[in-house]
Design a protein that fits this description.
With 253 residues, the protein is an alpha/beta fold. The chain has a single domain, classed as NAD(P)-binding Rossmann-like Domain (Rossmann fold), CATH 3.40.50.720. Helix content is 50%, strand content 15%. It contains nine helices and seven strands. It has helices at 17-28, 40-52, 67-81, 107-135, 145-149, 155-175, 192-200, 202-210, 220-232, and strands at residues 8-11, 32-37, 56-61, 86-89, 137-142, 180-187, 242-245. A seven-stranded parallel beta sheet has the order 3-2-1-4-5-6-7, with helices on both faces. Helix 4 links the parallel strand 4 (86-89) and strand 5. Helix 1 (17-28) packs parallel to helix 2 (40-52), helix 1 crosses helix 9 and helix 3 runs parallel beside helix 4 (107-135). The protein is globular and about 45 Å long. The relative contact order is 0.14.
């Protein structure tokens, strides 16, 4: 039997990159996956890939900046597949980009990053909590090696991602008694956003690659998706932790 047979998973931002890779890996292991994102057509394509491979998936449009849409995402998942036992908060709804000069960056840019990252993760967690409270579950939030390292130009995004790590620690403490594990993955992966940055700033991209001991940017499915699979299956005694899936760029202590 597959490791996630009978389990239900929700993956946000699953139309591309790490979200797509994670949804595909979880489905391959038997989970029924709600593939969610702002661009429904992309999510439909991913869901079709999963179904054609013999898995179970449903595409659901969801803008994580809108709390009502997150609540609807969870409700529709329950109606279609049953209560979720896995939530991967992958979507970052705003504050992206690596050209923000700290002394000039506006409040609005920071607030956009926090609404689309920290608050969207919180709202997703709150939406699945009533179900996981009864069954237990695994929540994986996405941080970033950029936040941990403090890359110049990425202050709004990186700060919001570090706040997600703080939120994760508090949730792990408060929800552990319900059998809910809450962890963080801080990836370095060649998704769409990273590919755009590589093309726009090749010198900065090469500088980042030189910081990675393994010498390459991770694959969203094979390197990051499989790491998330390990968290939700094999690493049952892990909670409140940050797993840096970044080829050694951030060696945490």
């Amino acid at each position: 039997m597959s490791r996630l047979e009978g389990k239900v998973a929700i993956v946000t931002g699953a139309g591309a990159g790490i979200g797509r890779g994670t949804a595909r890996v979880l489905a391959r292991e038997g989970a029924a996956v709600a593939v969610s994102g702002r661009t429904l057509s992309k999510c439909q394509q991913v869901a079709e890939e999963i179904v054609e491979a013999g898995g179970r998936a449903m595409a659901i449009g969801c803008d994580v900046n809108v709390r009502e849409q997150i609540d609807e995402l969870v409700a529709r998942t329950v109606d279609a597949f049953g209560p979720p036992e896995i939530l991967v908060n992958n979507a970052q709804g705003g504050g992206m980009g690596g050209a923000f000069v700290l002394e000039d960056v506006s409040d609005n840019v920071f607030l956009e990053a926090f609404r689309g990252g920290l608050l969207s993760s919180l709202h997703g967690m709150q939406a699945v909590f009533p179900y996981m409270k009864e069954t237990g579950g695994s929540i994986v939030n996405l941080a970033s090696s950029t936040g941990i390292m403090g890359d110049p130009g990425f202050a709004p995004y990186g700060t919001a991602k570090e706040a997600i790590r703080g939120l994760t620690k508090h949730a792990a403490r408060e929800w552990g008694r319900y059998g809910i594990r809450v962890n963080v993955v801080a990836p370095a992966a060649l998704g769409e956003g990273a590919a755009s940055f590589r093309d726009e700033a090749p010198k900065r991209w090469e500088a980042i690659l030189r910081q990675i001991p393994l010498g390459y940017m991770g694959d969203p499915e094979e390197d990051i998706g499989r790491g998330i699979l390990a968290i939700v299956t094999d690493l049952q005694y892990l909670t409140g932790a940050t797993l840096a899936l970044d080829g050694g760029r951030c060696i945490l202590r």
